Structure formats: C-alpha cells, structure tokens
Predict the structure.
Amino acid sequence: MLVMEAFSAILSFKISHGGFSYHPRCEALGLFHLMFADDMFVICGADSHTFCTIAELMRDFHLFFGLQPNLQKSASFFSGVSVESKQVLNSILNIPEAVLPVKYFGVPLISTKLSYSDCLVLKEKMLRRVQSWSNKFLSYVAQLIGSILFSMRVYWASVFILPHRIMKDIEGILNAIFMERCGIEVPLC
C-alpha cells in the first residue's frame, strides 16, 4: 500500500507539471485515480501525451521499486474513443482493452443503477451454496449458514441499491430453506 502511495504521489506530480490530461468528467473533482490495497484505477483523458506519461511513470516505477503491473490482471477501458485511437493508445501501454461491466471483488462495476439481470449472479451464487448444503444437516448449522448467505446479500447491498425484485428472490431462497428445515422466516430487510 505504501508503494502505491508513492505511485500516486508521482502521478500527482506529473499532473501538476502538465504531463497528464484529466478525463472530461473528472477534472472538476480533481479525480485521476482510485486505489484499493494494491489495485489502482487510473482515470484519464484519451490522448497519446497522457498515455506516454503513464507508460513513462510505470517504467520509472519499475526501475525504482522493481514492481510492474500484472498485465493478465490489467485492462484499459474507453468511452467515446475511435477504434483507431484505441489501437494507438493501447500500443503505448501494452495493456489489453476490456469492456464494462467488469467484476471487481465479485461485484459488477457499472456506471448505472443495477438491473435485475446484473444481480442474477448473486441469486445464482446463493442458490449454488444452498444446493450444496441441502443434503447436509442444515438445521444444526442454520445460524452459521444464515450468516454466510446474509453476508453475501449485505456485501452487494453495501455497494449498490439492489432492485426490489432481486431482494424478493433472495428472500424466497432463504425462506424456502429455513422454513423447511428450521421453521425460521427470513425478513426482506
């Protein structure tokens, strides 16, 4: 994490010295990156000068700290950029292009409100867990299993406002199991 702070400071220095252009919707906020642990999202304008600055920064960072991005876990995302420009910019960083939505910590990264279909993966995960436990002694471990299933729902709900329909489906899954096995009814909220 400390090393990522150094990367952030160097990037901030480059920005203050004109080697970087902001993404058009982020300049007023002064937003040029987001970090979590050892992950970083660099948000920038789609121009060769900025991409060259980032490539130079990654080279310097590698020389100084001996670290470099894992290209299998790295991706670039574009919006409103021509195919030709994407090819030029991707050749500068040598980072493959991907499309949204992408999952980060199991949650889809999208810029809009989650739809029912966006949340189906949560429902399917819960169903798989429940089915894998269905032949086991569910009544003896209901509290533990309940906390696992609830934590999956809480994790998603802490990041997004979940559609009411998906909440009803999850409630149905939980109630079907717990009412049948334990006589417990699961509330929606």
